[in-house]
Amino acid sequence: MNDVYVIGTGMIRFNKYPQGSVRGMARDAVELVLTDAGLTRDDIQAAYVSNTFWGMFAGQHSIRGEVMLWDIGMDRIPIVNCENACAGASTAMYLGYTAIRAGMFDVVLALGSEKITHENKAMSLGAYASCMDVENFAAHLKMFEELSTRFTVKIPEGQGPPGEGRSVFMDAYAMGARWHMSQFGSTQKQLAVICSKNHLHGSLNPLAQYQTTMAVDEVLADRPVAYPLTRAMCAPVGDGAAAAILCSASYLKKLTDARPVRIRASVLGSGMHRDIDGPDIGERLSKQAYATAGVGPEDIDLAELHDATSYGELHQTEAMGFCPLGKGGIFAESGATTLGGRLPVNTSGGLECRGHPIGASGLAQIHEVVTQLRGEAGKRQVEGARIGLTENGGGNLGVEEASMTIHILEKV
């Protein structure tokens, strides 16, 4: 089977684009990735395209990828539409990787484009609930409430059950954070440390939605969302597009000016029925990814983790094996995950600051790690970066993500 390489990435700045469109952002990202790879649209043999909410917001269902690429002149080729909640773009990457590994194609495009900002803010926030089991939504919320009664952490007045002004996922993450606080003694301040660190990283990233620093005390003083999360600890609503071009080893040999990054592992899996104290999807899939790549967590030089909230990053540093279970907050406080630390995490600013247009986020992670491994990240460059990991979770079933994709990439 073929080795697979990333030979191009491209993304627009994630931000709020009230007048923007899914297809317009997709066009911009494709132009960027083609330029980066030194290819033309006629070189692409297949495309895997991610989007989640276009149908819900604008009625464009069924042929979203074909519509996006029609404007660019990419027709005739196989185009696969990929919808997998927040893991959609990384799933598109996985599909392109597996097609090249299988020998079906030599060069493919993975693309994600998403517009979530809307004049009806309630519609934007309410859309996230479609990334859960909508037929059993009431039972799911009841399960959250019942689990919360098992935790020793007390919720301050006014920061309790689901309410207006936030997506239901913030309540799911808040529940996970309170479980961790009850189980291991982690603190709200540790979550604020993670958030402040990501604001520092985001301030160095010209493609981040938020580019300002934020002190730990400022994070703690921000508007409460769902205890222990404040507004700053939660990924913002926003829009954006990102893309990558993948190729086979034989195709790479034909290129003269390529800056390739090798894909050591691409793993996709789904959640399982389990108790909140059971084995986590991230733990399961990271072990699979490490085995495929022939490396361990100690070999990773930087990581982009799915921090839809600060707790997401804390949890995933444990699940990826970067620190022991229960020690994620202490790991962050040590400075290990900050630029210059032992294992910089979310050098892009993460979802909290880079932004989280969910159908594009997974490829934004790939863009950051590829940029780092090429040594082209400027002020946020991780010195000596050789191997990077991305973890992208999507949706929710039971007590964990409905889907997750992990990639391990290596400098060539």
Low-confidence stretches: none
Counting DSSP E segments of at least 2 residues, the number of strands comes to 11
* Distance from first to last alpha carbon: 19 Å
Amount of beta strand: 15-25%
Order of helices and strands: EHEHHEHEHHHHHEEEHEHEHHHHEE
SS-based class: alpha/beta
The proportion of residues forming helix, as a percent range, comes to 25-40%
Q: Strand order across the biggest sheet?
A: 3-2-4-7-1-8-11-10-9
Mean pLDDT: 95
Question: Number of helix segments?
Answer: 15
**Alpha-carbon Rg, integer:** 20 Å
Q: What shape does the CA trace take?
A: globular
Largest sheet: 9 strands, mixed
Can you put this structure into words, describing what you see?
With 412 residues, the protein is an alpha/beta fold. Helix content is 36%, strand content 17%. It is built from 15 helices and eleven strands. It has helices spanning 22-37, 54-58, 64-70, 88-101, 121-127, 137-148, 168-184, 188-202, 216-221, 249-252, 281-293, 310-319, 328-333, 350-354, 361-373, and strands spanning 4-11, 46-50, 79-82, 107-114, 224-226, 229-230, 240-248, 261-270, 302-304, 387-394, 403-411. The strands form two sheets. Strands 3-2-4-7-1-8-11-10-9 form a nine-stranded mixed sheet, with helices on both faces. A hairpin with a 2-residue loop joins strand 5 and strand 6. It is globular. The protein starts with a strand and ends with a strand. The model has no long low-confidence stretch (mean pLDDT 95).
